[in-house]
Request: fold
Amino acid sequence: MSVSTAPPAVSTQRPGVLARMRGTEVRNLGLVAVLAVLIVIGAVTSENFLTTDNLENILVSSSVIGVVTIGMTFVIIGGGIDLSVGAIVALASVWATTLATQSYGPWMMALCAILVGAGAGLANGLLIAYGRLVPFIVTLAMMVSARGLAARLADNRTQLVNEQGIKDLAKTDVLGIPLMVIILAVVAALGWILLNRTTFGRRTFAIGGNTEAARLAGIDTRLNTALLYVLSGTCCGIAAVMLLARTTTGSSTHGNLYELDAIAAVIIGGTLLSGGRGTLIGSILGVLVFITISNIFILNNLATETQNIAKGLIIVGAVLLQRRANRDTT
Amino acid sequence: MDGFTLDRRRLLAGSGLLGAAGLLAACTSNEPDEPESTGASQVANTGSGNDEPGQEVVIGFSAPAADHGWIGAITTKAEEEAAKYEDVDFQAVEGSNDVNQQISQVETLISRNVNVLVILPFDGNALTEVGIKAMEAGIQVINLDRVFSSARGYRTYIGGDNYGMGAAAGYYLAQQLTEKGVKDPVIGEVQGIADLPLTQDRSKGFEEALATAGFKVSNKVSAQFTVESGQQVTSNLLQAAPKLDALWNHDDDQGLGVLAAIEQAGRDEFIMVGGAGSRNMMDLIKADSGVMKATVTYPPSMAASAVKLARLVGQSKGMADLVELGVPASITLTSETITKENVDQYLSLGFES
Reply:
């Protein structure tokens, strides 16, 4: 593939900006190449692919899962995993659309969703960091129970959003850009600053790389870890608000399999599953790759099953490619 | 069948005369009564004598988890129907989407010695054996909607018509498009879960009905019966087809998402037909303000009918409007097309998604 020629060229550059483009950045270049190939395939196979409407549609479709993936990236870089994201999105969407919550208006609905997300994340974080339980188990338990609670709250019904203010979020453009995409961009930008320009971000990398060393270096690893899950939960809350607008409903079936989609995007985005290394940009690119594949398949009227096979192959291919890029640069 | 001969012997010997008189009265009195009754579910009740309190029947009920509107409605309609009868003791077990768990729940009901079982299996094939086990233990089984793989597993089957549902949607759209004089229409289809047999039956009916007018499906996508997936695939479908003439969505539960996507894309150049018959969609059809013009039914009220049948079977009665003394072995409901013209009749049967 054309991608594999890129890393050596980059790695032999003189010191400076390019010299820092090692490891994860190189992987991002690989993903950009994958995305470019997909765009070419899309443009060749369907005349409706390269239209403003469709590209906008791809970005908007990426927005909800994109926000969830940003939170997931933090957790995975910090050496954890969050299996409960989809269930938290469902719970937040249901809680925010109960008649009681809706009576307070759109702002309170949004706040409610975000608080529910943050609260569930806090529960995860406390159990993992201070209860010393394995993240896999804790978030698995949260996944099951949050969805159960969502179903109980909604009484197994789909709850309609009655507030026009929320529904309008999905139809609003700011300077010609859909608000959904702007929300994703803002969350991504804030996330990037938090991860790369603050102590919290550097500590997260340190903890994910080696928790014991981080602890000995004087980092409050437990507080930091707990905050990572709160962050992930908050992202789920924001995603839930976006989903309320997109679907005009709250339901315990919302966010189905988000955990897998988010983890897959993070991994093909070049973040190590064992933690300590990764980028947000890679994760966002990962989301775009998956959403673009779905889009191309639907534009070409192909069945969903083949789409899933293609996604599986891309995950394996991307990881193999990254390993190679990694070897070439180090 | 053993159970049936026993039924008939009892009917003829004991309460037979009374029962027969009741049946006769039903057949005559039903006709003048019919126009007066408004609700479709009430029709069968009028004057048949079958609703007179009789011998007490213990009915066990098992269905999948009520995780979406349609199954939720199945459970509530069954409960409501049972509550109408003093002579019915209704024992429902908690719904489950795990076939293994549903099997053990049915076994529990068998060991409780209920008289009749109403079973909507999560998977018809997987629950067949326990259905046979119940029948062999002398418990009559009413198999609801998802059919067992062996007829030995049930006394009576009652369910919807997936092929007919697709066909009804296809005929309606074919007729509408032909009337408008559309040549070579672009027709979209939003399926539920693609690999389920019921989805394939629906799509087959749809395609074959469209073919009678020389039309075919241009764009087909599959969702997951959930609102979110409906929104997601439809937003892509609308990109794949920049101009549509018609759209059929298999399921009104996911239809909320389908409609959200249509509204967000600002599209209104086509007509849309839904599936199942939810209250939301009926309200939209009645309002006639958007793309939603019709829905083809797959009514959860079948659960209420199943409870009625269970009671009749348990009391060894037949169906008043039929000549035969026993309840039939199989009943398939028709899929009706609800449009603005007839929606008022159906409003009471709509279910909340």
